[in-house]
Amino acid sequence: MTSRSNNGVVHLRSPYSVTNTLQRLEAVIATRGLAIFARIDHSGEAAKLGLEMQPTELLIFGSPRSGTPLMIASPSLALDLPLKALAWQDIEGVVWLSYNSPEYLQQRHDIPEALIKNIAGIRALCEEAVHQTT
C-alpha cells in the first residue's frame, strides 16, 4: 500500500475499485459502531447530466459522541465534521482513498491536544479498508 500526503490530505492507494473501496470502508465503520451519514456518488451525478468524470464517491461518517466535544472546543471544526473519505480514480486508473489528516484538522481549527484522539481513528479505518486480503 502506498500513500502520499499534501496540504493535509492523505491519499492511500487502493487495490479495489472506487465503489468496492467505499463498501469496504463502510464495513469497517460498521464494526466500530460509527454512523454513516451519507454516500455521495459525484461521478454518478455528473453522468446524469451527460458529464464525464473519473469514478469519485464520498463517504460522510462519524460519531456525535466523539465529534460534539471537538466542535464545542473548536466550533469552526463543524466545517470539516462529520469525517469524510473520498474514493477516486485518477486518469491512470489508480484508485485512491483520501481523507484530511487529524494533524491538519488540529492545526486548521486549533483543536486542543487532548481531543485529537477523537478523530485520529480515521487513519486506521481507511488503512484497513484498502488493505489487500489474500
List keywords for this structure.
134 residues, TATA-Binding Protein, globular, 6 helices, 39% helix, alpha+beta, 6-stranded antiparallel sheet
List the helices and strands and how they pair.
Elements: E1 3-6, E2 9-14, H1 18-31, E3 35-41, H2 42-48, E4 56-62, H3 64-73, E5 83-89, E6 95-100, H4 102-109, H5 117-120, H6 122-130
Strand element count: 6
- The stretches of 5 or more residues where confidence is low (pLDDT under 50) are none
Give the overall shape: globular
Helix residue percentage: 25-40%
The CATH architecture term is: 2-Layer Sandwich
Number of helices: 6
> What's the CATH H-level superfamily name?
TT1751-like domain
Distance between the termini: 14 Å
Largest sheet report: 6 strands, antiparallel
Question: What share of the residues does DSSP label as strand, in percent?
Answer: 25-35%
How many domain units?
Answer: 1
CATH class reads Alpha Beta
Briefly, what is this?
The chain has 134 residues and is an alpha+beta fold.
